[in-house]
Amino acid sequence: RKSKITASRKLLLKSLMLAKAKEEWEQEIVDKQAEKERYLSERITPLHTSGLSLSQLQDLCRELHEKVEIVDEERYDIEAMSGMEGRKKMFDAAKSPTGQ
């Protein structure tokens, strides 16, 4: 059975499709970065440190450090939970007669 499309035409179409996919992927990256910047600009207020005394700057640093610790603990807990779930699923799959 003969193909209705030549090999060179197939190759041309494939390269066009790949180029289009690459363009869309690059645009998606740009869009995600813009969305991230927009989200962060809405959620995070700019830090104003001019005119603060040394003790006020130290207090601000302590406050920021406490917030970072809280976020790190939450992130660690989430990672630990997702890791435990993943190990449990792997263990269950290895235990089952169909899972290999």
From TrEMBL:
Query: From the Swiss-Prot or TrEMBL record, what is one GO molecular function term?
Result: actin binding
Coiled-coil ranges from the UniProt annotation: 22-74
Asked whether the UniProt record includes Coiled coil among its keywords, one would answer yes
Family, similarity comment: Belongs to the troponin I family.
What role does this protein play?
A: Troponin I is the inhibitory subunit of troponin, the thin filament regulatory complex which confers calcium-sensitivity to striated muscle actomyosin ATPase activity.
PANTHER family, sorted: TROPONIN I (PTHR13738), TROPONIN I, SLOW SKELETAL MUSCLE (PTHR13738:SF9)
Q: What is this protein called?
A: Troponin I1, slow skeletal type
